[in-house]
Amino acid sequence: MKPALRTRACELFGVEYPIVQTGMGWVAGARLTSATSAAGGLGILASATMTFDELKKAILEVKDRTDKPFGVNLRADQTDVDDRIRLIVEEGVRVASFAQAPGREIISRLRGEGVVTMPTVGARRHAEKVAEWGVDAVIAQGGEGGGHTGTVPTSLLLPQVVDAVDVPVLGAGGFHDGRGLVAALAWGAAGVAMGTRFLLTRESTVPDDIKAIYLDTPVTGTVVTTRVDGSPQRVIRTDTVDHLERAGRLTALPRALKNALAFRKLTGTSLRDLLREGRAMRKSQELKWSQLAMAANAPMLTKAAMVDGKPEVGILPTGQGVGVIDELPTVQQLIARIMQEAEETLTRLGA
């Protein structure tokens, strides 16, 4: 392997290749995570949609399937986050990733236990803030990314973040092949993080008919909407999304409250803890109570499609890269191909 492909991220995570599979809710379970790590990348379990017992079981399953390093994606505002941190420390999990900044105290605690901390950011100032708090790495996700996303394209955001911080930066948003990996390295990144590309693999447990929808989606087939949970979120444009866009606040809020209670039941969160989480989110993100209720829409509507296979009542989070993906390789085949393409691209540039 060419020296340029052995990056700071490889050393930090203890992996062979600078490729991260992100912790996608309802998607990144033990099978996909272990397959990614076994193939030389860094797989990350999505724990935000798991109960504590489900997370423990998933971690043990990953460890049973591979002895390679892996990570767990955490929500810092969950009431049992201390128990989850204690669990990943006890089980020797290498990386803790966060969709939002976890705060100084959690970062300090994880680093003190030898766990690599890696939040996702969508702006240079956010990267500077978490770097000051002591994170080990950051994922800079451009507007092409799936799920909750910003407006700055990866080609502009990634170099900005690289210039702003000294820690390794992983690029996310639009990456799907070896040429993209080399482009990220050219911008100064230490690797790439991908969600949609790993969702569309054989090890992904997303139902086959849902994967077929993804494979048929063109580059122009996605939309960024705020009608799911109040924050900008990139999803495949479907009749369900169009309906959400047309729905008024009077019909959206009752549905959100219903989903909040359903999500509470699924994750084993008591009503008291749900309110406590809500108060924490309201304080940290300056949200209204109506926005907090809407925040439950995303996981429940995602579950409807990604787990239950009902796109007519759910949403399909995706990056714009979905439009250039047309097959379902195994994770091993995908990572091997990306690395081969990266080698060939570097050779071509060198010539």
Topology:
Elements: H1 8-13, E1 19-21, H2 30-38, E2 42-46, H3 52-65, E3 70-74, H4 81-90, E4 95-98, H5 104-112, E5 116-121, H6 124-133, E6 138-141, E7 147-148, H7 154-164, E8 169-172, H8 178-186, E9 191-194, H9 196-199, H10 208-215, E10 222-225, E11 233-236, H11 239-246, H12 249-267, H13 271-285, H14 289-294, H15 297-306, H16 331-350
Can you offer a commentary on this structure?
With 351 residues, this protein is α/β, with parallel strands linked by helices. It folds into two domains: 3-205 and 325-350, TIM Barrel (Alpha-Beta Barrel); 218-317, no CATH class. It has 16 helices and eleven strands. It has an eight-stranded parallel beta barrel with strand order 1-2-3-4-5-6-8-9, surrounded by seven helices. A three-stranded antiparallel beta sheet has the order 7-11-10, with no helix packed on it. Strand 5 (116-121), helix 6 and strand 6 form a beta-alpha-beta unit. Helix 3 packs parallel to helix 4 (81-90) and helix 12 crosses helix 15. The longest helix is centred in the C-terminal third of the chain and has 20 residues, at 331-350. The protein is globular. The model has no long low-confidence stretch (mean pLDDT 90).
